[in-house]
Design the sequence.
């Protein structure tokens, strides 16, 4: 079964009724070429030129491999901040979620060639539920920096699995993921799809969509830039490791290429490996109660 996809033709990005229908029915909307080759190169330059890599930490998969992650809570004023604040990303989320959103966090997922670890089946809301977010009015925007293929660990999704609602999340090895037996049952009625992407392609997906990725055993790295958003009227009921409602100042799409700020990391609030361990421990405790 093929994935419904849409081609961005340039200019103002308009979320069509067909895109909204795909998001509602399938749990995701795939837009080809939403970021140009020049924009992708500019984003990669910002990651490599600034102090981003200093904030990298590993996420072990229990099989001797690990994915590398950089995660921050606020967009900031640098190039990566322009990505998370630009109209085509934020406006796209607002049209799909049906209301104003704010930035929940952004992360760069780096799966090195040969050693990049897997991520088990999970829902983003499986974690965010424990942060006091009462409704699943949340989503993630997956922006391919590298070519994502079956060989180098592209995203895998269970189509329409978001309609199953939140699945209980438990510790599975070294990670927290959706209950394995439940995922197995869902996989018999929600088709598995491999989301292969070119650099600049973007996947908007629902926070309850079940997704995973395998270990990267290939010769090619796999970098992906993921921005998460929460609808403003879903402000978390408690303080946690991601922000409560913080006004998001949108910028025009042109700001991504026009921004030449590579070093200013003010206000981004990076996570650390210690914070990641605390987060996993808190989720694990919640699932045991």
Sequence:
């Amino acid at each position: 079964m093929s994935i419904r996809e849409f081609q961005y033709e340039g200019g103002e990005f308009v979320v069509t009724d067909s895109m909204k229908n795909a998001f509602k029915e399938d749990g995701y909307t795939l837009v080809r070429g939403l970021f140009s080759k020049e924009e992708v190169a500019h984003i990669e330059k910002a990651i490599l030129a600034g102090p981003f890599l200093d904030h990298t930490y590993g996420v072990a998969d229990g099989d001797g491999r690990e994915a590398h992650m950089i995660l921050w809570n606020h967009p900031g004023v640098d190039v990566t901040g322009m990505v998370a604040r630009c109209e085509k990303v934020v406006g796209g989320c607002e049209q799909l979620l049906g209301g104003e959103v704010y930035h929940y966090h952004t992360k760069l997922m780096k799966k090195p060639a040969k050693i990049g670890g897997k991520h088990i089946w999970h829902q983003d809301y499986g974690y965010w539920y424990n942060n006091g977010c009462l409704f699943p009015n949340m989503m993630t925007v997956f922006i391919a920096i590298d070519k994502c293929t079956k060989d180098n660990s592209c995203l895998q999704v269970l189509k329409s699995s978001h309609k199953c609602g939140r699945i209980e999340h438990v510790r599975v090895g070294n990670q927290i993921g959706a209950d394995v037996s439940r995922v197995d049952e869902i996989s018999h009625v929600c088709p598995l799809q491999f989301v292969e992407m070119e650099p600049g392609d973007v996947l908007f997906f629902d926070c309850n969509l079940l997704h995973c990725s395998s270990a990267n055993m290939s010769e090619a790295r796999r970098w992906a830039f993921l921005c998460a958003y929460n609808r403003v009227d879903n402000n978390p009921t408690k303080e946690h490791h991601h922000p409560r409602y913080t006004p998001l100042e949108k910028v025009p799409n042109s700001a991504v290429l026009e921004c030449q700020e590579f070093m200013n990391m003010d206000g981004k609030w990076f996570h650390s490996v210690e914070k990641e361990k605390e987060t996993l421990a808190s989720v694990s405790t919640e699932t045991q109660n």
